[in-house]
UniProtKB/TrEMBL annotation:
Keyword hit for Signal: yes
Protein name in UniProt: Uncharacterized protein
Organism: Adineta steineri
Signal peptide start and end residues: 1-20
Pfam families: Kelch_KLHDC2_KLHL20_DRC7
Amino acid sequence: MEHTNVFAVILALLLNFVVFAPNKLETSTTPATSLSSLITTISTPPLSSTTTSLVTSTTSLPQTTTTTTTQQSEWFVTSNMSDARQEHTASVLSNGKVLVTGGFNHNIGFLNSAELYDPSTSTWTTTGSMIDAREHHTASVLLNGKVLITGGVNDNGRLKSAELYDPSTGIWTTTGSMTNARDLHTASVLTNGLVLVTGGVSIGNIFLYSAELYDSSAGTWTTTGNMSDARREHTASVLTNGNVLVTGGAGIEFSAVDSVELYDPSPSTWANTGNMTNARGQHTASVLSNGLVLVTGGYNGRIALNSAELYSLFRTN
């Protein structure tokens, strides 16, 4: 009897555990249906032991798209000039058009023709012809908008003549001639409006040291101080302080020079400055926005150059 009572107690305890044991909490995860959404699943326990429901909330974060645009530089053709030409000039006028003058054509010879390029229509139109055909000349846009043509060479030899182009009329008129005939020279419009012409080659293949100034208000030329070195195929750059930097070129012995000179318009004097690293002629010189001058390429008397160098007027260490 005693064993029977013990067994009954144990059986009652087991039945009570099975009936009243808490249900196991079940959780589920909602699968993501889009790669562009981030799924967050929150499981909330049941509020009572008799409830097995699951509450699920989903939060979607907006997709962020980054687009990278790459711009590619390219060249494309535009309409052709009326005349094929080399050794000519091109000048951007105040109205945005480009004036091309003179040069040499192997079928025609030296050219006096001029034409205008209109960027808005990509077309060329002929304009009045120069009085003298010429190549190796210079073209300078003056402060009054007119274009000054100086020197050069044609069938008659090297020229000292100069002429003016008026964009408003398309007409050329003569102006005062230079003191020296010259080609392969430079012409620079100074901040005071005068035009500085330097160096070049004159009649008899004489390399020139000389420089002269053109006054557009009077149409006259006056000589100014000579450079230290005679030179042709050099560069002349108007610096931010108004001085003119002359670099390199071919010297008297037809060899490239590395010498550099500065012209100061105020006292009209020349002064030597630091030489270039490489002697060079037929090169380019560009005044950068930071005031430095970039010199590139050219010919040193033996080979063409790929070197470049910078000139600083106010160098700081």
